[in-house]
Amino acid sequence: MSDTLNPSLTHPAILETKEAFGETTLIADAAQIVDLCQYLKREKKFNRLCSITAVDWNPAEPRFEVVYHLQELDPTPTTAIPVVRRLRVKIRVSGTNPEVDSVTGVWRAADWYERETFDMFGIGFRNHPNLIRILMPLDWEGYPLRKDFPTHGYKYSYKGEEAK
Amino acid sequence: MKQPLVDHVATIPALEELPASPSAPRRMTLNMGPQHPSTHGVLRIVIELEGETIKTAIPDIGFLHTGIEKQCEFTNWAQTVTLTDRVDYLSNLANNLVYALTVEKLLQLEIPAKAQWMRVMLAEIDRLNSHLVWLGTHALDIGAMSMFFYCFREREEVLRLKEMFSGQRMMTSYIRPGGLALEPPRGWDKMVGKFIRQFPGRVDEYENLLDNNPIWKIRTQGVGYISIEDMLDLGVTGPMVRAAGIPLDVRKTEPYSSYEKFDFKVCTATENDVYARYRVRLEEMRESAKIIEQAIAGMPEGAWQANAPGVVLPDREKMKTQMESLIYHFKIVTEGYRVPVGEVFQAVESPRGEIAYYAVSDGTQKPYRLHMRTPSFGNLQALPTLLKDTLIADSIAALGSMDFVLGDTDR
Question: A69–B360: do the CB atoms touch at under 8 Å?
Fold first, then answer.
C-alpha cells in the first residue's frame, strides 16, 4: 500500500482518508459506492477486487462496515513484475435493514464476495444478479458472523421431557 | 435468535426449463458431485449440457463450511494459529505464515533474520507438497495413474521433513506470531539438503513421463482456455494467471519475510491452457527447490524467535529458573496477549494464489474479526466461464488445472 496514492484520489464520495500500518483506507459514502468504484477502476486502474467483507460493530450504530480491498494492476501481459498497490474502501451501513448497492457491474469478482457477505452478515446488495446464500444451506436462519449469533448450541437439540 | 427468511433466498436459477420451440436443441441437466472423484473434495457442479457441450456450469459450494472465521473470534490470538492450519490443508504453512505476518504487523514486531529465512524455506517446502499433490491427482484424473505414485513418493519425503520440524505431518502450526514454534531440529540442513539435491532430478522424471506421452498432450493442450480479462475481472490469482502471461506473484510484487533477498524467477507461460498451467507449476517446483537451496546455504545465524517476552512463549529452561519468564508463560497461556487496536491486510503467495488475511483488533486478546481471502474461493468463481462451451470430457482436465482445495473455498 502506498503513500503516493493519496493526493491523486479525488472523488466526492470519499469522506475521509486514513493511513495506518502502511495501508491506505478510504471511508466512503455508502450511497455513492458504485460511482466511486467505477472511478477507481476506470481512471485509477484498480482492476482487481481482492475481497469484500464486513465487520459487525454491534451494538454501535451504524452497525456494519462493508470493506472492499482493491489492487491496482495493469491487465496487459508483460514480462516485467507489475506494480501493484492496494487500497481499502470502507462504507458504513445501518443495522436496521442493511442494504448497499452491488458493485458486480464494476468487477464480476464481487458476485461471490457479496453473496458471502449477505450469507454471513445479512447485508443485502441491491442489483446483485443472484443474491442467495453461498456457504450456508439455503434455508438457514440467521447470519452466522453477526456478533449476536451464538457459536454454540443447536436449534433442534433435545430439551428433555419437561420441555415438552 | 429468530430472524425471518429473506426474500432473496431462492433456488438456483431454473435449469429444468425446456426450450420454447421444439426444434431448438434439448438440454440436459447433469449433477456432478458433491462426491465426484475429480472434484477433489466436496464440490457440486450443476451442468447444463447440449449434446456433449457444457452450456452452463454452476458451482455449488459450502459443503465444507466449518465456520473458521467465526471460531477465530472466540480463540485468542495465539490459539488462532491452529485454526489457520485447517483452512487450506495442503499448504498449511502458507496459512500459518500469512496469519503470523498479519499479527506481527498489528503488533509491529521485528522478526529476526533466521526466522524469516526459515519461514521462506518452509513456505517453499509447502509449495512442493501442494504442487506434488496437484500433479499426482491431476494426472490421475486424466488417466496417467503412475504419476500419482511418483508424486506421492516425493510428497512422503516432504511430509517427513515437516514432521521433523514440527512433530506433525500436516497440521504443523509451526510458523507462529513472533517466529517459529520450536527450535529447528539438529541436522535439519542435512536432511533438507539431501532431499532438495535429488529433487530436480525427480522433476525431470515427471517431465519425461508426461511430456513424452502423446495422450497427456492431447488431453491438456488447447483445453481450458479463459481470457486474461475474464480472469482478472473474476479475481483469479496464482498459477492460472501466470500461465496467461501475467507475472502476478506476491513474492515479487510485495515481498514479505525477506523474499527480496532470494534469487528466483516468476514462472509464466503464454498458452493459457491446461498444459501451460502444468508447465508453470512444474517450473515453480524447480524454482522452489532453488529457493530452498539458497536458504540452506545462506541461513543467517541468530535467534529463531523475536525478542518479545509478552508474545512469544519463553524458553523452557528460562521458565524454570526465572521468575519473569514463568509469569509471562502463565499470562500467555491463560489469558493470551493483547494486540493493539487496528486493522491490517496482509497477502502471501500460497501455492494456489493470493491468500490474504484481514484482521481487525479491538485491543483485546481475541481477534475482533479475521477475514480470510482465500485463493480457491477467488479462483473457483471463474469456473462457469472456464467450463462454458467445453466438452464434458475436457471439463475434468479444466477443473483439475484450477487446483482448488475445498477447505480453502468454504473455510
Answer: no
Count of the separate structural domains present in chain A: 1
Quote the pTM value.
Answer: 0.88
- Residue A52 at interface with chain B, using a CB cutoff of 8 Å: no
Domain that holds residue A67: 6-126
Residue A112 in contact with partner chain B when CB distance is under 8 A: yes
The ipTM (two decimal places) reads 0.86
B373/A88 touch (CB, cutoff 8 Å), yes or no: no
Please give the residue of chain B at the shortest CA–CA distance from A148: B1
CB contact under 8 A, A82 and B244: no
* Per-residue pLDDT reduced to its tens digit, B71-120: 889 898 988 999 998 888 888 899 999 999 999 999 988 899 999 999 99
Average pLDDT of chain B?
86
Residue A107 lies in a domain: yes
φ/ψ (deg, to 5) at B254: -135, 75
Residue keyed to cell 470430457: B393
Is the Cβ of B11 closer than 8 Å to some Cβ of chain A? yes
Element (H, E) at A100: strand A99-101
In order, the DSSP letters of B258-296 are TGGGS-------SS-SHHHHHHHHHHHHHHHHHHHHHHH
